[in-house]
Amino acid sequence: MKNPFNHDHPPADTPLVNVQIDGVWTQMPKGLNAVEAARRVGKFIPHYCYHPKLAIVGNCRMCLIETGGPKMDASRAPVLDASGKPEINWVPRPAIGCATNLTEGMAIRTDSPLVQECRRGVMEFLLINHPLDCPICDQAGECKLQEYSVQYGNDHSRFVEEKVKKPKRVDIGERIVLDDERCIMCSRCIRFAKDTVHDDVLGFTERGSHTTLAVHPGQRFDNNYSLNTVDICPVGALTSKDFRFQMRVWFLKETKGICTNCATGCNTIIGSRESTLYRMTPRENEAVNSEWMCDQGRLGFHYIHDPKRLTQPIARHGPETTPLAWSEIIPQVAERLRQFVPEQIGIVASGRLTNEEAFLVAEIRRVLGGDSVLTDYVPRFGRADGILRSADLNPNTHGVTLMGLSNGGASLADLRRSIDAGQIRALVVLHEDLTAEAGWDGATLQKLDLLVTLGLLQNPTTDRADFILPGASFAEKRGSMINGAGRLQRLNRAIPSPGQAWDDWQILLRLKEALGGGNGLHTIEEVFKAMAAQVPAFAGLTLSRIGDLGIELEAAMPKETATE
Amino acid sequence: MSNPRAVDPATQLVEPEHAFPVSEAHGALVTFPTGFEAKCDELITHYPVSKRSASLPLLHLWQETFGHISPQGIEWIAAKLDLQPINILELVTFYPMFRQHPIGRIQIKVCRTLSCALAGSYKLCDHFRERCGTATSDAHGIASSPEGKYAVEFVECIASCGTAPVIMINDDFHEAVTLQRADELLGKYD
Amino acid sequence: MPVQERRLILANIDRDGYTPDIDCYLRNGGYADLKKALTLDGPAIVAEVKTSQLRGRGGAGFSCGMKWGFIDPKKNTKPVYLICNADESEPGTFKDRQIIYKDPHQLLEGMIIACYANNVHLAYIYIRGEFVLGAQILEKAIAEAKTEGFLGKAINGTGYDLEIYVHRGAGAYICGEETGLIESLEGKRAYPRIKPPYFPAVLGLYMCPTIVNNVETLCNIKHIVRMGGAEFAKIGKPNNTGTRLLCVSGDVEKPGYFEFEVGALTMGELINDVCGGIKGGRKLKAIIPGGSSAKVLRAGERYKIKSKKPDGTMEEKEIGLLDITLDFDTLAAAGSMAGSGGIIVMDETRDMVECLANINTFYAHESCGQCTPCREGSLWMKKVTDRLVAGEGLPGDPKLLKTVADNIAGRTICAFGEACAWPVQSFVAKFPEEFAKHAEGKVATAARKGTVAQEPSKAMEAA
Ligand SMILES: Cc1cc2nc3c(=O)[nH]c(=O)nc-3n(C[C@H](O)[C@H](O)[C@H](O)COP(=O)(O)O)c2cc1C
Ligand code: SF4
Ligand code: SF4
Ligand code: SF4
Ligand code: FES
Ligand code: FES
């Protein structure tokens, strides 16, 4: 992700300068702004308009600090104090931290009486025309106005005049509602839309205190990154229609996840409560998505709570379906599969499988007959947008390829022909619907003697299946994936799977054991270890070593499915 | 970078067309008098570094030609300068001289600021409003008479404070305007 | 013997038979200074301007030579632009208008010399939108100068090219602030830029080094070239050189614009001798000396002014309002500023709360709305003074006004913050009894019409 600005990450070769922050001398990259410099020493300078990835406009004035430079004597040499450090000449006028760039000998005060007074003043100004919406505002709980007003504001209001009236509940786009009275005119959203995603539809109309954020009449703010503005809006002016009024944010449990809607693998925070996923928001990872994600990815989770979600292992005998316990169904599946010779079995894998799952599928394939078992995955392509979205809509194409389960989709037609010709008579389908997504017609599936599906949703393929194994969604399981750029990243479990649905790796592990391929694996860590022992790309890695931000895989990745 | 709107058609999120359609909904569309576009093109040559700089000149020209800046005007100017319509709407609503609705033919601007107020401009403005029969002000603070003949408006200091109170009728300055002089002027512009 | 005007810039303005066309200008020796300048090299002219000690006439009084000196022709690789600030919108100021309407070639000549001196090839005159005729006059003057070879390609037979265009504003005061002006000229809302990093001399128009000078400042350049910097510096006082156009408005018998050597006369001489005294023989109450942004001065106040005696030693004198000499340093020492040269006089009958309410309305209307303290504070202060005028004052209002103003000044993006805070701070501090009376709700002006502030009904309507 190329950001137009990266104020928080100056180039590594930036020279260091000596600076004093709240009395303590330290070294920082030259030119770093004071907000970031303070952050690096654990001091927080409150700010609204400043964002490390956006142009600096300095309009909110919340980050006012005191600055100074070395005091010079008559010969223009710095005057030193008792400890040999330069004495500071403080500038009487406060300066904004976001546009104060460090120079040699600079000193800043982030919490002096003057600074505190400035913040109180700005907070008072921001609040006088702000509506008293907090009890009904979605931002409550993560609102910077609320937060800073407690920390830096006055305890009472001196404003007795009438507040400025502005439009409320403005429908500015497919996914966003604007409340202009709540807007503090920081212009973050405008700068993001214009500079980061090149969709210049937001702007300010009117002037002075009547300044109003607006979309041009007749236009809509609904580019594929629009919801990022909801994240960066410091107040509740921009809210997500999808999340609006669904859940107070302080009830949400946060789990680190990755988006599985394309090969970019944007890092996310999954917000859930009990067994429901309420929202996904981007999690900063400069190597992948910076602080952003696309709207499709962000909203592309609702299917996991779809009424069609499969929650019960089911065996079908003719028209009869029988719900079974996992302990019953897995031996039955294994028993049936064993009745076919390798050339009669096919496997349709998926780019949605985790590495661990793909590894276990490969193991099962080995037990069933190895290369003789015709196997491929279902490719899925869209269009790369040059921002984040990859043309590859499978989150783990690299992973399934690395496990030898992919022939780039080229073998799918062979598979289908062999089934039609009656050569292949048993098929295992993982997380794919062959009718809708691979374009097969139902007649092909009818030819099979055995169809085993592992997946999430009921679909025409599962309707035909002899065994329906309900798996876990990306938010319900652990494991790893390799994104389009060759970065290994981790999924975490945010919510439990519904009903009897079960972690895919568990299901696959049991099936493999039932097929006679048991080798003492019990945990996902052990699966990873076994995989790492076999796959050179993972040599020396463990699941925990991947870390929250993932790691770049050294080994050459097949590049044909890379992003962009 | 490609246009972020051009997303995968297979997805759920439908992206409407970006270009803003100039539709009938904006009222009657104006036709350009001869030479209008040529004049625009000439104005643009004043800004060899950035076409965007021609925004205010084109808005002035549009308003002089058509009386006010219609949505059509905003979109046309934006397209002419390779800008988005919001870039122009931002200006129309920022600069007080631009108006988005037709106003009276005879436009009277009375200076409200201190030197003129000391010389009686509040009384003068009331006088004009009374004489012109203007109703209460619109969103731009302009009060037009019902038949659309007059528009009276308070404006801020117009840099003639030494001869207060000062008014502008259309593009002309009139200085030291007494109530009697006000009536004479109204007669003259009739 | 009243002090005589020293008409340098106004030499021809209002002279019988003097017209704004180039023929008249040439007949009166016009463009001779440009011809002289073209025989010098740019840095030499910059040096003369430095020697002249000319200070900017737009409001801030910044040294013109130093401003030009920021642009290092050796280090700079980008084009340099020059913009003439003809936005003249500081209330009480109407001097640039005289030059533009009556002697446009004087401005052009000064501007062309300034461009030549700083190696500028593209320059703009940013003129306020209401000067419709003024813009036409300037455009005509530019066309004439082109025909005569003083503008365009190979000026006056030299290798120097320059284009000047007139750019009209559209009614926004903030376009007078130089970085707001630059944004406006770039076709955007006139949002002043943060400084640092956007100092015009470094990152100005189109992010290139840019000189912004006031109309009057640029006219002076022509005279500096004619006289030489050292000679020019002899006019006025050290550090306050040249002449100054003074605009007097408000409650005096003969308001108008005048030109005096800087520091040559006192406020008393200006008001009483030049302007015929306070209107109707009434008494003086207050003076705003440098455009409405300047802090108000109250009749009867005493100021301690330090000055350098001819022998170089310092002396301190206590003086009254009418003893203030009209120069940058003395007005600053008196706690206000020379600003834009707009002097607004108020007599004893004026209600200072109403006057402040009038000023506050101006600033609330003109705040660009970009930065929090000014956007919210300017309207808040207006609402409070409107309430005071309407007889609905609250006891805490004077203190409230002061603290709100204190929270604006020094904390905003541009000097508009000070411009809207200083009137409030000074009016409230200097006329406490009037504010106290209003704050007690004792002065209800509800019945009055034609006051200097909004009538209560309208005040409430606008709130
Ligand atoms: C709010 C504000 C309004 C201003 N208005 C004007 C103006 O109308 N005309 C002007 O020449 N300078 C104005 N200035 C001053 C300019 O910013 C700038 O300092 C000046 O044009 C520089 O020219 P000078 O050095 O020749 O004075 C204004 C400044 C501020 C802060
Ligand atoms: S909507 Fe939010 S992000 Fe946009 S300007 Fe307003 S407060 Fe800032
Ligand atoms: S770009 Fe891809 S990974 Fe990122 S949020 Fe969008 S769909 Fe998800
Ligand atoms: S101080 Fe006022 S005019 Fe200047 S940038 Fe801030 S809001 Fe705009
Ligand atoms: S964060 Fe620095 S001014 Fe807004
Ligand atoms: S105050 Fe009216 S023209 Fe200046």
Could you give the topology of this structure?
The complex is a heterotrimer of chains A (564), B (190) and C (463).
Chain A: E1 16-21, E2 24-29, H1 34-40, E3 64-70, E4 88-90, E5 95-96, E6 107-109, H2 113-128, H3 144-152, E7 170-171, E8 176-178, H4 188-196, E9 202-205, E10 212-215, H5 228-232, E11 238-240, E12 253-258, E13 267-273, E14 276-282, H6 295-299, E15 314-317, E16 320-323, H7 326-337, E17 345-349, H8 355-368, E18 374-377, H9 397-402, H10 412-420, E19 426-430, H11 442-446, E20 450-455, H12 460-464, E21 467-470, E22 479-482, E23 487-491, H13 504-517, H14 524-534, E24 551-552
Parallel strand pairs in A: 1-6, 17-18, 17-19, 19-20, 20-21
Antiparallel strand pairs in A: 1-2, 3-4, 3-5, 3-6, 7-8, 8-11, 9-10, 12-13, 13-14, 15-16, 15-21, 22-23, 23-24
Helix pairs in contact in A: 2-3, 7-13, 8-13, 8-14
Chain B: H1 36-44, H2 55-66, H3 71-80, H4 85-92, E1 106-111, H5 114-118, H6 121-132, E2 142-144, E3 150-155, E4 167-169, E5 172-174, H7 179-189
Parallel strand pairs in B: 1-3
Antiparallel strand pairs in B: 1-4, 2-3, 4-5
Chain C: H1 22-27, H2 32-39, H3 42-52, H4 64-69, E1 80-86, H5 96-102, H6 104-117, E2 120-127, H7 132-147, E3 163-168, H8 178-185, H9 200-203, E4 210-214, H10 215-227, H11 229-233, E5 236-237, E6 240-241, E7 243-250, E8 256-261, H12 267-274, E9 284-288, E10 297-298, E11 302-308, E12 314-320, H13 328-333, E13 342-347, H14 352-366, H15 372-389, H16 397-406, H17 416-430, H18 432-439, H19 456-462
Parallel strand pairs in C: 1-2, 1-4, 2-3, 7-13
Antiparallel strand pairs in C: 5-6, 7-8, 9-10, 9-13, 11-12
Helix pairs in contact in C: 2-6, 2-10, 3-6, 5-6, 6-10, 14-15, 14-17, 15-16, 15-17, 16-17
The structure holds flavin mononucleotide, iron/sulfur cluster (3 copies) and FE2/S2 (inorganic) cluster (2 copies).
